[in-house]
């Protein structure tokens, strides 16, 4: 709940209409209160902090200028959407952010009419907003569509595909480029603000359109003037690329001057056709630690704002991500042919130490998952051994490249798939629930599911030594606390491991759900097999279990459809072995957000749920 004494102006804001009732002079005050409220709120719930602190003024200006929700605002990725949520009636629910049953961490269409498009993955905003603009034109509706995209998201091919189409369609679309890291951001100051406002104003626009009409019957002069205008603007404004794509470029402008932004946006609101406004912001604005280290404060857990995030290493059980990072450095020391690739997920994938130690063998391609896979394929063709660290949910974006460029050519590329299975607070856009299903059907893929952190390390070595495409998928969580081998020892390919012998029921566990499976087996006196490999499947163990037990139970942190359990069923059918089967996995729906533990329990994949399902079948 909002404390009215601390936020006197913000406490009066219940919708964007209330924002539009403010005077221009009140907007900087509102921005200060919003920034303080964001810090207080996110420090308690966790979430994306630095990006939101950097776009407070921009968000206020957009809602102040445009008649939302009739005018559509489409946020790219959605990391910066908290201010938008606060201003659009969800302020008093921010304490539930990313919690089960609470607000989503990203814009979500069924959460609010102000969330015009559901996001979570990058570089979709321009295409979606263009679709809305074209729909409005076809339906004869007069409204604006605005895409807000960051400079990082602008590196993806999808963004440029949409820009190219927008310029060709001449639709009424405004693209706001939120630039907080590009070199062109240095050109910000009084002169640039003046030029940007001048170029967006009615005098310049009228002169430009009038000149085009006068010169339309004089093609040589018209072409000369077009090129002259382009080169003059190119000297003072870094927007030639966008102009060539057919968008009128304006900026760069100061993204923290809320009054100036409103005046600029009002000018652009009166214009037709595809426009691009270049806004320069600073991540973490207003909170010193986040300004100095926006990477650490990108996605945060709860913390004390007075103390800041404490990064002291206190030991303890490593995460699977840390296990990968350690293995990567060790394997690189043993083999000079190793190269590591990431699509803008260096820290998230545990690659910081490798990047510092082996900078010439580290390649961050930006938010370009498709390119990451094809780049790896090209390197593999020349005898290098690429390791691609990628989140499960982002691998979906590079599926064609994985099939066509890597596996079809049988190239030795190792995928280190982080955030597999249930992820938690980030919700369905970031859940890795599908990878076993969409990988298992690809001929030639080796797929491994470690049950603990030591198996994860050994499987990475296994996949790296193979002369074919391979994948190791692991969750976003800490390990089990087992001892980790220091060497680079592989596992026997396709070999499962019997962890407990029982009778009646055989539980075939794939991945980290081995732990609750063993707990259930102690209660039911069941056999437990740590399957380890989804492909190649240990068919010998599967057939033996089917012939000596009354019920076969498969457990996986993946949707049941097409997953590891399906592989077991197909094996039995192929060998004409009849067996009672129970497939346990994630539900046939997109799970909402919550903790990993809550979502596993909801899916019946904790000890209680697994035991209840088996007893019900028996």
UniProtKB/TrEMBL annotation:
Cofactor names: Mg(2+); thiamine diphosphate
GO biological process terms on file: isopentenyl diphosphate biosynthetic process, methylerythritol 4-phosphate pathway; terpenoid biosynthetic process; thiamine biosynthetic process
Keywords, comma-separated and alphabetical: Isoprene biosynthesis, Magnesium, Metal-binding, Thiamine biosynthesis, Thiamine pyrophosphate, Transferase
Domain Transketolase-like pyrimidine-binding as annotated: residue spans: 318-482
InterPro entries found in the cross-reference section: Dxylulose-5-P_synthase (IPR005477), THDP-binding (IPR029061), Transketo_C/PFOR_II (IPR009014), Transketolase-like_Pyr-bd (IPR005475), Transketolase_BS (IPR020826), Transketolase_C (IPR033248), Transketolase_CS (IPR049557)
Enzyme class name: transferase
Family: Belongs to the transketolase family. DXPS subfamily.
Protein name: 1-deoxy-D-xylulose-5-phosphate synthase
Protein source organism: Ectothiorhodospira magna
Lineage: Bacteria, Pseudomonadati, Pseudomonadota, Gammaproteobacteria, Chromatiales
Gene encoding the protein: dxs
């Amino acid at each position: 709940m909002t404390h009215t004494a601390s936020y006197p102006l913000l406490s009066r804001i219940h919708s964007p209409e209330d924002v539009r009732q403010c005077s221009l002079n009140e907007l900087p005050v509102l921005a200060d209160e919003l920034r303080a409220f964001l810090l207080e709120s996110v420090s308690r719930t966790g979430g994306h902090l630095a990006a939101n602190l950097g776009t407070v003024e921009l968000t206020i200006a957009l809602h102040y200028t445009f008649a939302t929700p009739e005018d559509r605002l489409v946020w790219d990725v959605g990391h910066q959407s908290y201010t938008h949520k606060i201003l659009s009636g969800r302020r008093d629910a921010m304490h539930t952010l990313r919690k089960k049953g609470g607000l989503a961490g990203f814009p979500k269409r069924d959460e609010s009419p102000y969330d015009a498009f559901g996001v979570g993955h990058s570089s979709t905003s321009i295409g979606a907003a263009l679709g809305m603009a074209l729909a409005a034109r076809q339906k004869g509706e007069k409204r604006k569509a605005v895409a807000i995209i960051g400079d990082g998201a602008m590196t993806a091919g999808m963004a440029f595909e949409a820009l190219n189409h927008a310029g060709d369609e001449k639709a009424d679309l405004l693209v706001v480029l939120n630039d907080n890291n590009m070199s062109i951001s240095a050109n910000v100051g009084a002169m640039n603000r003046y030029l940007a406002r001048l170029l967006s104003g009615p005098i310049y626009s009228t002169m430009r359109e009038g000149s085009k009409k006068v010169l339309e019957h004089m093609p040589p002069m018209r072409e000369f003037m077009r090129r002259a205008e382009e080169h003059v603007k190119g000297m003072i404004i870094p927007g030639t690329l966008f102009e060539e794509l057919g968008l009128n470029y304006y900026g760069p402008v100061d993204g923290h001057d809320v009054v100036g932004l409103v005046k600029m946006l009002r000018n652009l609101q009166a214009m037709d056709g595809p426009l691009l406004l270049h806004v320069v912001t600073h991540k973490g604005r207003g909170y010193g630690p986040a300004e100095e280290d926006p990477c650490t404060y990108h996605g945060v857990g709860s913390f004390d704002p007075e103390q800041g995030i404490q990064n002291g290493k206190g030991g303890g059980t490593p995460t699977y991500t840390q296990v990968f990072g350690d293995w990567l450095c060790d394997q690189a020391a043993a083999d000079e042919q190793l190269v590591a690739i990431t699509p803008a997920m260096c820290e998230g994938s545990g690659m910081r130490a490798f990047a510092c130690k082996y900078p010439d063998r580290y390649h961050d391609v930006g938010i370009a998952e498709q390119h990451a896979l094809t780049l790896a394929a090209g390197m593999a063709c020349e005898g290098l051994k690429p390791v691609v660290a990628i989140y499960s949910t982002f691998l979906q974006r590079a599926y064609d490249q994985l099939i066509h460029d890597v596996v079809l050519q049988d190239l030795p590329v190792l995928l280190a798939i982080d955030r597999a299975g249930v992820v938690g607070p980030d919700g369905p856009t970031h859940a890795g629930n599908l990878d076993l299903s969409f990988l298992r059907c690809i001929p030639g893929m080796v797929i491994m599911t470690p049950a603990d952190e030591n198996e994860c390390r050994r499987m990475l070595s296994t996949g790296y030594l193979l002369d074919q495409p391979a994948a190791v998928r692991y969750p976003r969580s800490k390990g089990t606390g087992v001892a980790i081998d220091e060497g680079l020892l592989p596992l026997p390919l396709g070999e499962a491991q019997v962890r407990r012998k029982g009778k009646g029921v055989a539980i075939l566990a794939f991945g980290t759900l081995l732990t609750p499976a063993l707990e259930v087996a102690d209660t039911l006196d069941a056999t437990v097999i740590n399957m380890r490999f989804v492909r190649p499947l240990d068919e010998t163990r599967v057939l033996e279990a089917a012939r000596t037990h009354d019920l076969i139970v498969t457990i996986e942190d993946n949707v049941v459809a097409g997953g590891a359990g399906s592989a077991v069923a197909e094996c039995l059918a192929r060998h004409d072995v009849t067996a009672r089967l129970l497939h346990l996995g994630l539900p046939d729906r997109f799970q909402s957000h919550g903790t990993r533990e809550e979502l596993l329990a909801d899916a019946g994949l904790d000890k209680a749920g697994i035991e209840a399902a088996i007893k019900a079948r028996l």
